[in-house]
Hints:
The structure is a homodimer.
Chain A (H helix, E strand, L loop, with lengths): L4 H10 L2 H4 L4 E6 L2 E6 L13 H19 L5 E12 L7 E6 L2 H14 L1 E11 L5 E13 L1
Antiparallel strand pairs in A: 1-2, 2-4, 3-6, 4-5, 5-6
Amino acid sequence: MPLPAEMARVFTEEKIDFVKRSDLKAEELLPCYVRLRMPLAGNQNHIGTLYAGALFTLAEIPGGALFLTSFDVQRFYPLIKEMNLRFRRPATSDISVEARLDAEEIERIQNEAEREGKAEYRLALQLKDADGQVVAETSALYQLRKH
Amino acid sequence: MPLPAEMARVFTEEKIDFVKRSDLKAEELLPCYVRLRMPLAGNQNHIGTLYAGALFTLAEIPGGALFLTSFDVQRFYPLIKEMNLRFRRPATSDISVEARLDAEEIERIQNEAEREGKAEYRLALQLKDADGQVVAETSALYQLRKH
């Protein structure tokens, strides 16, 4: 069973101290779809834009957030295997990300993990500023593992 | 002129709040060479190993730390353009990284940035646990810009 929305929010925002300290916000947590926001305040780098580590975190957490809203959290758990980031322009506002996995893909991943003990899934994301401009493009490879 | 060592340490550990909150330690800051350590305590993920965002930070900061110890900090400043990470095994201890840039490469980068306004440099790093095992391999592309 996936987690109820409020529990998924608490896990996404507060389960990992490193993430909690960034004040990442889970704005929408639905089956197959999440939207997250990383505040600029408190996360600025040496030139006043959003630090790259905060952008990484914003790009990495959707894999876990989608896991919580969409996968059987009692049978499986996710790991990250790879992450590639291209920083396109300075992030001068809060930055948001949307991530989707369709129901057929989720079923494929869970069936494979049930059968093989593990299954991979990839999320390619665009991180956008308040004007909708892409500040970074990311591609992450996750592995779903059976408990 | 590069920064004096104590000033480079303060800038590396404390200039960016996001980094300061992780308690990253600059263990050695020399011209052409830096060694940094990310503590596990306070940075664990949902399974008790070092969160990927802390590994990213440990891999990203050497580019800036080498800038501080080795480049003319009054004429130039660094930006990150790309970062690729491969997570090889769970990080179950504090994690360390060493980074080097040789003097000829630093001169090449600064001369190019002086002439063109910007110059790129790449750092390929191995993040290692307390036993010397590689937990992640990273490759970052930075850009040195002229003020």
